[in-house]
Amino acid sequence: MHGWRGRIGLIVPSSNTTMEPELTAAAPEGVSVHTARMRLREVTVEGLLEMEEHAEEAALQLSDARVDVIVYGCTTGSLVKGPGHDTQLSRRLSSIASCPVVATATAVVQALKAVGASSIAVATPYIEELDRREKEFLEASGFRVVEMRGLGIRDNTEIGKLPPHVAYQLAKEVDSPEAHAVFISCTNFRTFEVIEKLERDLGKPVVTSNQASLWAALKHLKIREVKLQLGTLMQLL
After folding, report:
1. Which contiguous run of DSSP H or E holds residue 51?
2. Residues 219/71, Cβ–Cβ less than 8 Å
3. In 10 A of CB 162, how many CB atoms?
4. CB distance 182 to 174 below 8 Å
5. How far is residue 205's CA from residue 112's CA, in Å, rounded to a whole number?
6. N or C: which terminal CB in the chain sees fewer CB atoms within 10 Å?
7. Architecture in CATH for domain 107-209
8. Taking Cα atoms as reference points, which of 112, 110, 43, 96 lies closest to residue 74?
9. pLDDT < 50: residue spans in the chain
10. Are 14 and 6 in contact (CB under 8 A)?
11. Which residue from 188, 187, 184 is spatially nearest to 207, judged by alpha carbons?
12. How far apart are CA 48 and CA 39, in angstroms?
């Protein structure tokens, strides 16, 4: 039986081509990943708000698979309404699915605190408006954002096409001596291949949306391993 150690339910934008493959590749033996999708083409405030209207149906679908934990796998989608949106969304979906739900934004906050970062540098593929909202969310969560840089991409499929070296280079460019850690945002931004390299080159923890989401899900499942080397955070399972 697939998922004999635990089943992770994943709710992602329909145009996300990265999160499901990354989590599946890293999930340990006996942990399965099952996905439901919400329609999204452009990563804008309007698009994310419209997408969320389909979140409850996605959670209900995953409950039919009897998953043990659900990840709302969209970083800006789980913070777009401001501080507290992530936890409110998780509670609402948890009541529908009858299992724990963790939003990516929540997982990122928990992960950054776990690696001991109070000041951070942030790399994103987003447009300026979403960068601003994410900065406000992170600051409201207790972090000092010392540097932030986005690529200005609206089309989510274009974000998914970016090779990992783009995330690597952007993270190096945005890093600052004042930052305790670098956060690479977006569940559709490929990062798993470069986390270890970045940590070696920067000499500090690197947290990414998908890495933090997987870490949070595995903590709910009380499983303390992954298949891939994914940096400092995964040593804290």
Report:
1. helix 45-52
2. no
3. 18
4. yes
5. 9
6. N
7. 3-Layer(aba) Sandwich (3.40)
8. 43
9. none
10. no
11. 184
12. 9
Q: What is the pTM of this model?
A: 0.97
Q: Which of these, 78, 66, 5, lies nearest to 40 by C-alpha position? A: 78
Q: How far is CA 236 from CA 44, 58, 87, 212, in A?
A: 33, 30, 22, 11
Phi-psi sector, 82: left (phi>0), alpha (psi -120 to 50), beta: left
Which residues partner with 177 through β-bridges?
none
CB of 101 closer than 8 Å to CB of 90: yes
Strand intervals (E) in 14-92: 31-38, 69-72
The rounded distance, in Å, linking the Cα atoms of 75 and 53 is 16
CATH number of 6-105+211-226: 3.40.50.12500
pLDDT at 19: 98
Instruction: Dig out the tokens for 27 from the structure.
Output: 């999930």
pLDDT the model gives residue 100: 98
Give yes or no on whether 6-105+211-226 and 107-209 have one common fold.
yes
The answer to whether residues 13 and 77 touch, using CB atoms and an 8 Å cutoff, is: yes
Contact 103, 55 (CB under 8 A): no
String of DSSP letters for 139-156: HHTT-EEEEEEE----BH
Q: Would you list the domain boundaries of the chain?
A: 6-105+211-226, 107-209
3 state DSSP class of 8: strand
